[in-house]
Specification:
The chain has two domains: 144 residues, Ribosomal Protein S5, domain 2 (2-Layer Sandwich), CATH 3.30.230; 120 residues, 2-Layer Sandwich (Alpha-Beta Plaits), CATH 3.30.70.890. The N and C termini lie far apart (61 Å). By secondary structure, it is α+β, with helices and mostly antiparallel strands. The mean pLDDT is 90. The protein has seven helices and ten strands. It is globular.
């Protein structure tokens, strides 16, 4: 009798982000809020082939341990979700590019067939991590997001299309879900609600990076800001709880030397992409 064919693997892909345009408190004692910078070219790919036993392969960037998966399975009531799991993560963990949230979402979508609404996915991520990026949303860059509450605070207008090139400054930093020590960004958020042009967007993102570095001592954006000024960049965007740092440009204006300049500043995993949705 011929062996029974193995079931086809179930796949899911979840794109990450590249830090935030802004992150901080809405007023001195307000909630932590952010506007993410979607990055369509960095993603987590999950593949699950149901079957007997359990196996997990994660490649060069392991993100989830077996304990993480067990907690996710328990929340779903999925038991051990037997079979073979493969997680391929294109961004370094702890870099502020959404690896943790994207990995959990990719596993969740394999198990649930992608049928869960974004609010439910956000609730799962919040229960598992205590904080969440808005990667489950269809347009994650068009909302003001409460990462410690896993909810949309307010919608935002589509932001101008920009070209982004950046990298990661040093080893990853694990996000502390209880950390609320951020700068006040209420005025910067008001600027985003007003529908900024590209120049304003670059100024707002750079100011959020400066304020939070002054308060938190995160990777210093000053060298990147200076290099960007020489190359005609609009400004910088950084991961406020990670190591991602990027330059923002008007479409078609990224210099050929940009990647080499970033490497000379010590950034790794150089990544270029286009983000935003308004011309």
């Amino acid at each position: 009798m011929p062996p029974r064919p193995l079931p086809a693997p179930i796949h899911a892909r979840v794109a990450g982000h590249f830090g935030e345009l802004v992150q901080g408190r809405l007023g001195p004692s307000g909630p932590v809020a952010l506007v993410t910078l979607p990055c369509p070219v960095l993603a987590v790919h999950a593949a699950w082939r149901p079957g007997p036993g359990f196996g997990l392969w994660q490649g060069a960037h392991p993100v989830l341990g077996r304990g993480d998966l067990a907690r996710l399975f328990a929340l779903l009531g999925a038991g051990a979700a037997r079979g073979r799991w493969r997680l391929h993560t294109q961004m370094p963990p702890g870099g502020g590019a959404g690896a943790s949230t994207a990995a959990r979402l990719a596993v969740l979508r394999c198990l649930a067939g992608g049928a869960l609404p974004p609010a439910t996915e956000a609730a799962f991520c919040l229960a598992l991590e205590g904080a969440s990026d808005p990667l489950m949303l269809p347009a994650p860059g068009q909302v003001l997001w409460a990462p410690r509450e896993g909810r949309i605070i307010a919608p935002l207008p589509a932001l101008p299309t920009i070209e982004v090139i950046g990298g990661f400054a040093g080893p990853g930093l694990r996000t502390d879900a209880l950390d609320t020590r951020f700068a006040d960004i209420a005025d910067l958020v008001a600027g985003l609600h007003a529908g900024p042009d590209r120049a304003d967007l670059g100024r707002i993102a750079s100011e959020s990076a400066r304020r939070n570095h002054a308060l938190r001592g995160a990777p210093d954006p000053a060298p990147l800001i200076a290099a960007g000024r020489e190359m005609g960049a609009l400004g910088v965007a950084v991961a406020h709880t990670g190591t991602a740092q990027a330059l923002l440009f008007a479409p078609g204006t990224v210099p050929d030397a940009a990647a080499g300049t970033l490497r000379a500043l010590g950034l790794t995993h150089i990544t270029a992409f286009r983000s935003g949705g308004k011309t």
